[in-house]
Amino acid sequence: MLPQEFIRVKRDGQKHDRESMHEFLSNYLSGKVADYQVSAWLMASFLKGLDDEETYWLTDEIVESGEKLDLSDVDGIKVDKHSSGGVGDKISLALVPLLASAGLVVSKMSGRGLGHTGGTIDKLESIPGLRTEFSTEEFKDLLRKVGAAIVAQSDALAPLDKKLYSLRDVTATVEALPLIASSIMSKKIAVNSDLVSLDVKLGNGAFITNLEDAKELCRIMLSLGKQFGRRVEIHVTDMNEPLGYAVGNSLEVIEAMDFLKGKVNNRFSALVKQLYVDTLNSVNLPVPDFDKLIASGKPIQKFAEMVQAQGGNPKVIDDYSILPLSKNIFELKADKSGYLDYNNTVEVGMAIVELGGGRTRKEDAIDHGVGIKFFVEGGDKVEKGQVIAHIYYNDQHSLDNALNRLSHSFTIKETESAQRPLIWWSTNSKE
Fold first, then answer.
1. Is 168 assigned a catalytic role?
2. CA end-to-end span of the chain, whole Å?
3. Average pLDDT of 129-134?
4. Is 407 among the residues known to form the active site?
5. Which of 68, 368, 386, 424 lies deepest, with the highest CB count within 10 Å?
6. Which residues, listed in sequence order, are joined to residue 201 by a DSSP beta bridge?
7. Distance, CA of 195 to CA of 278 (rounded, Å)
8. What is the dihedral of CA 59, 63, 65, 70, to 10 degrees?
């Protein structure tokens, strides 16, 4: 089938057959189908949709386009964690060592930040000397030695997804649910873990802002997991405000370490605790008492072991000055009394980009030392003149741009807003 004929099928709202999809996508990988033709197909798929069978075929094509990671020779119950990304989302930095200290083997292949969402790899690389690029065998050795690893995703894993995503990013087709599901699940299916734990962010700081869309995405991913023989747990979690007090690379590493020491009590810590319980329950393991586990020191020591195994300085758990942190601090104060309400959390993420801590292009270098440390959460009562946050910055121009972004991210209201759930839906839900 000619590429234009394949595109026409979806343009006209008809269903593909598996053979033609394989031919079209394999020819794209080999250079026989042009980017502009795949872009046209992506837009047709965005507008007309892909059914469950077509989504399965697409996912299979992506999985088969590259290497697969066989973890069967790594002892223990293997968990693969993924988050759809948000503002201040340092869940992996805390949850991976926490679960590993409770006896699981936790593998995390992460990306770098782009746009308003921060990247777990960028955050971890705040620690001097720490490596995130490893071969397959090195990665497996990390899991055998420590039971936990957070590494950059291998280019050899699902290369078709990388090519498709780059086109989706520039053709306004990122939000198509079947395309999101196939992108996420293909990389999880390529790794044969015992449990895939997915955290889908929902709200004004996430890519998905509608609960029904989030549930439909979950349905598609659960269906794919079943078809490919992967056990999947999913949580749809709130991203209508920054998650935790820290936004920015070094600051988020500090908050994660403070959590592992039992020093954090906010929405971030509450979510990590719930994910900890649910993940262990999902693999039918006993759940060690959280407070006792933290008091034992095992979680923070597991973090140190992971850092050391990846070439970083493990002394960072006791000496935060090892991390780069900007010396200039601006105090952001409330201009009136009332209740803090986030109405555009994306702008908080973009404020970090303005400060230099994020990217607008994949090749951009980032500054690990800039960021924002909040002292209040959404819904909290504030008084006029109260310090809401410290902004860590390097120059006045970037600070001014960040302040402009922040001015559009929240308001201070006279009345308290209704409380939102921390977890909107999960595979444990009865609905």
1. yes
2. 43
3. 94
4. no
5. 368
6. 237
7. 12
8. 180
DSSP line for 311-346 = TS-GGGGT-GGGS---SEEEEEE-SSSEEEEES-TH
- pLDDT attached to residue 119: 83
Which one of 16, 90, 187, 215 is the catalytic residue? 187
Active site residue 187: yes
Task: Dump the DSSP string for 166-224.
Answer: HHHHHTT-TT-HHHHHHHHHHHHHTB--SEEEEEEEESTTSSB--HHHHHHHHHHHHHH
**Which range (93-107, 175-189, 356-370) has the least confidence?**
356-370
Determine the length of the chain: 431
CATH superfamily of 326-413: Pyrimidine nucleoside phosphorylase-like, C-terminal domain (3.90.1170.30)
The two tokens of residue 129 are: 């000397």
Domain 78-154+168-317 annotated CATH 3.40.50.720: no
User: Choosing from 10, 112, 168, 230, which is the catalytic residue?
Assistant: 168
Torsion sign across C-alpha atoms 328, 329, 335, 341: positive
Domain 3-49: CATH superfamily, name plus number: Transferase, Pyrimidine Nucleoside Phosphorylase; Chain C (1.20.970.10)
Active site annotation includes 161: yes
